[in-house]
Amino acid sequence: MNAIETHALSKLYGTNLGLHPLDLTVRPGEIFGFLGPNGAGKTTTIRTLMGFLRPTSGTATLMGRDVWREREAVHARVGYLPGDVHLPRDLSARELLERSARLRGSRDVSYGLEVASRLELRLTPQLGTLSKGNRQKVGLVLALMHRPEVLLLDEPTDGLDPLAQETVLEVLRETSAQGRTVFLSSHVLREVERVADRVAILRQGRLVRVDALNVLKASLPQHLEIRFAAPPMVNLTTLPGMSKAHLAGLNFTGLWRGNPEALIRALAAESLIGFSLVPSSLEDAFLEEYRPTAQVPEPSHVA
Ligand SMILES: Nc1ncnc2c1ncn2[C@@H]1O[C@H](COP(=O)(O)OP(=O)(O)OP(=O)(O)O)[C@@H](O)[C@H]1O
């Protein structure tokens, strides 16, 4: 059984597009990065998966349960961190953890206390006095405490200092190692890149890409720079795999995709002073996908 499955799941807010029909599968134990610029539809997707929003069309299941018709069964198995954490002002974090455990029919707050301690969150102050970062930590502890089968996290490290961010990523890795699933919405690529098994990119309510992180990395072009000692005899522009080729005097720059062997063979008879082939960062690739001018493919073109 898949942890999360959506079939042509869409959401319109009146006539406003929230989410174009979305087909997505997340496997148990996976950390699934859900990326996209502001307004892409990440929160809409998560809130629909939580059964807070009624889908305009399509269906979604979490651990086999329909997210709209079987909301309560879904909530029992999910840990949810909203993008905007609201907490009662007049309780302490400790009291809230105990209350939350009781609502789930348990008295066990031990894992919540462990995560709080790792995040260096003090549990006695009134929640109304907490900073944004500390409120975020309370939200995370609440989402994690009952060791849910699926975590739906909307911008989990928002407002956290680098040390706490690191701890959160560590906890997410542990969660996945225990076979539990993490659906991680973010626009911070650097953190997603460090933990995700697969990544989806959403833009203007549409899925533009879904790939395993290592496949995505392997598909990125490499930046090529060559300094020739003499005008080159070979025409590098026509090599399959080359794009954005530019020769200015003895200096060549271009983007190279694929194995460098063919490139090195083509250069064998040339006289070179310098040669460098540097992989693009995922950041570059994603920024390219984010650009409003980039083409948004129809969903059927997406794997
Ligand atoms: N309650 C609402 N009423 C009308 N339109 C909405 C509502 N909520 C979201 N939208 C629209 O739906 C689209 C998707 O918004 P959503 O909040 O899901 O994006 P997001 O990817 O989570 O963005 P962010 O990174 O800024 O949180 C946007 O165009 C937004 O304006």
From TrEMBL:
<keyword id="KW-0067">ATP-binding</keyword>
<feature type="domain" description="ABC transporter">
    <location>
        <begin position="4"/>
        <end position="229"/>
    </location>
</feature>
<dbReference type="InterPro" id="IPR051782">
    <property type="entry name" value="ABC_Transporter_VariousFunc"/>
</dbReference>
<dbReference type="GO" id="GO:0016887">
    <property type="term" value="F:ATP hydrolysis activity"/>
</dbReference>
<protein>
    <submittedName>
        <fullName>ABC transporter</fullName>
    </submittedName>
</protein>
<keyword id="KW-0813">Transport</keyword>
<dbReference type="InterPro" id="IPR017871">
    <property type="entry name" value="ABC_transporter-like_CS"/>
</dbReference>
<dbReference type="InterPro" id="IPR027417">
    <property type="entry name" value="P-loop_NTPase"/>
</dbReference>
<dbReference type="InterPro" id="IPR003439">
    <property type="entry name" value="ABC_transporter-like_ATP-bd"/>
</dbReference>
<dbReference type="Pfam" id="PF00005">
    <property type="entry name" value="ABC_tran"/>
</dbReference>
<dbReference type="InterPro" id="IPR003593">
    <property type="entry name" value="AAA+_ATPase"/>
</dbReference>
<dbReference type="GO" id="GO:0005524">
    <property type="term" value="F:ATP binding"/>
</dbReference>
<keyword id="KW-0547">Nucleotide-binding</keyword>
